[in-house]
Amino acid sequence: MSVDNRGFGVLRHMLKKKTILILSLGIVLGIFMGTCGSVFADRDNSELATDALPFEDLRTFTEIFGRIKRDYVEPVSDKKLLEDAIRGMLSGLDPHSAYLIADEYQELKEGTTGQFGGLGIEVTMENGFIKVVSPIDDTPAQKAGIRAGDLIVRLDDKPVKGMSLADAVKMMRGEPGSKILLTVVREGEETPLKITIARDIIKVKSVKSRMLENGYGYVRISSFQSGTGDNLKEALAALKKENKANLKGLVLDLRNNPGGVLNAAVEVSDAFLKSGLIVYTEGRIENSEMRFSAAPDDLINDAPIVVLINAGSASASEIVAGALQDQKRAIIMGEKSFGKGSVQTILPTSNGAAVKLTTARYYTPSGRSIQAEGIEPDIALAHVKLESLEKSDFIPVKEADLSGHLQNGKESAKSADDAANKDKEGLEMKDYALSEALNLLKGISIMKK
Description:
Layout: E1 12-14, E2 17-23, E3 27-28, E4 32-33, E5 38-41, H1 55-71, H2 78-91, E6 98-100, H3 102-110, E7 115-118, E8 121-126, E9 129-135, H4 140-144, E10 151-155, E11 158-159, H5 165-172, E12 179-185, E13 193-198, E14 200-203, E15 207-213, E16 216-221, H6 228-243, E17 249-253, E18 260-261, H7 262-270, E19 277-283, E20 290-293, E21 305-309, H8 316-326, E22 331-334, E23 342-348, E24 354-363, E25 379-380, H9 411-430, H10 432-448
Parallel strand pairs: 5-23, 16-17, 17-21, 21-22, 22-25
Antiparallel strand pairs: 1-2, 2-5, 2-18, 3-4, 3-8, 6-24, 7-14, 8-9, 9-10, 10-11, 10-12, 12-13, 15-16, 19-20, 19-24, 23-24
Helix pairs in contact: 6-7, 7-8, 9-10
């Protein structure tokens, strides 16, 4: 799963303690140090396991601690050494387990509101570099051209190699309006790209919608916040009102959606399912095992759905795509998704900090683990860019160009058709995947008739 992106309000009583399940990936700059499927949990030290301590290894640790304190070239505080030791212990487990100092933990909780400061990208660490999971819609990073899969190798003039992810994120944060130069390595580009981005306050609107054509709606979910489920219901109601009838089909766009609140992913899936399992989790601790099933309603009355995904679709996005795919409720189109299928638990500590620890994996209704595998689309689309060909100097002469040509008597209808064709061409030029999804929905509608 993934870490909570926004929405810090879903409470679940487990083991008589409050927890919040969240799903998201990597770190959203300016928000939090997150991953997929996080559980915020209050736990007393008495609840911790009392396994025998490895005294010999601890003796080695204290010996090295003492040598550093005594022999390192510069004085180092006990607090820094211990924090670094804890960070190393957690980062050695997997890319999503981490130690959050008090400020980072507070930012994580504040990040669930859907508003935060930063660049607007969600990142993780890969081979010592920062890997972009996805840019967030309508943010400085997206507008500057940052793409999912980009590797950030320099921040201003400082190499990323050797930095911790937390240190790199701190460098990328800053006052709104201040700028940072990212050096980006991108597949297909021969040389690194230099991209300057101005930091800003990021306000994320998780659900957007519009009518594509008569009868066919479009819903874009950019992240899964605590209110996303309600926002989706409002968007679908507005589309049906605009269409003045039930929808013939829907495109659900989850591209570059890094994840968010688990309950929001469940609510979105449930909006289109009448019954059956949506997702379940399994781990070693009791409260890591959960199952979510659909309620008996479908907000678009069984109208066909095409779900768009790509390599930036992660965690909660993969839960929705996996549930609708396994339940044969939607056709998944696009690229293979990111593959973030683990759950993290946020465990507050007595000093105001927190430990983010991977505690479970999540599974689709058919029992698939998406971890490191991702969702395979039913219809794969290559990542392409459509451009108009340059106009030729030679312009062929047509009947309509001849002086005094005879009118066909249907100019007004022809003008309307030309306008419709122009709009369709504009859609195709702007978004190839969306155009293909719409064509598929039309084909399904014809077959149903």
